[in-house]
Amino acid sequence: MAIQYTAIDFLTKLSQSNYTYTNAYRKKVHESNKDVEALQVDVAGLKKTVKDLGKSSKGLTLNSGLENLKIYYKKTAVESKGEASKTRFGKQLQTLVKTFNSLNKNAEKVPDKELEKQLEKLENLFDKNEKDLKKIGLKKKDGKYVFDSEVFEEADNKVINRLMEGKDSFIKQTEKIMRKIETRLEDLQYNIVDRNMMRTTKYDNDEITLASSFALAKETTNILGLCGSLMEEGALPEEFKEEVTEDLGLFITAYNNADKYESEDFNTLKTLCEEKETELAKVGISFVEDAEGKKTMQYDAKDFDDPDFQNAYVNLFGKDSDFVKNIADCCNKGFNNTLTPEKVGVSIVDVYV
Fold it and tell me: Is the pLDDT of residue 35 over 60?
């Protein structure tokens, strides 16, 4: 919810903080899920591609370990290509065990039904092939898989063949499940969360001066309007005459200050005043040209008892005056366009509610 200020109070607030305003706001941000990222480390490299070939073996995970086992077995099946090292094969089995255990551990930190479903399929696949896996040295102990190098040394190539070859083999089905896990983790990697943020906006002197001019022009016009209603009802009380004189002068000051800046809203204000040039002159406000031909306002006090003054004043500032309303609307717009308070969580009001 926006914080309410009157225009004058907001300017005072800015002046007390070197023309800066700091506000808190809520922002939706994409944040990576660290638990998912930890799990992704375990499944990285599943879909082995040419780009993966040059990467460090440190990034190998379950699927890449299985792929290397499959490559090894194919080499052993073709004698013309030479016999691959059984030690290398054993190391790949160790990688398989280590990564599978890490995968299950990290998956506990990522509650997701689809992920749990695929992990259950993977666990069932290992259980289904438990006998053959034991024969090549992979067995379950205390809920984790361990590698038995002695059993591995006696492993039969026929068992390896059953695990490694064919579209329905252990390794092929494992790869299929791992691809689904990888895809699901990509969906889970980022969360959209609401965060409390702080923002400091700095205004320059020109913006403050222009906004202050609009605020002053509006305030003085409103006061002149109140006095106009009193004059319309009869004679203006003596104590208000000094107020009128002061506010007419302040309006001119605000007008001339705003005229120093390029502003579409000031151009509107200027047009509104020039349209009432004749009546403004009767209350003491006139336009004069300087040496460069630029028009500025000046004030010459008039006799409050002069009928011309009274008629012109009532026409300009009397009850329900369009001139007062249009000036106020124009100045409101100019103030808001200059300082854009809504962007810093501020709502400009005439009175607090």
Answer: yes
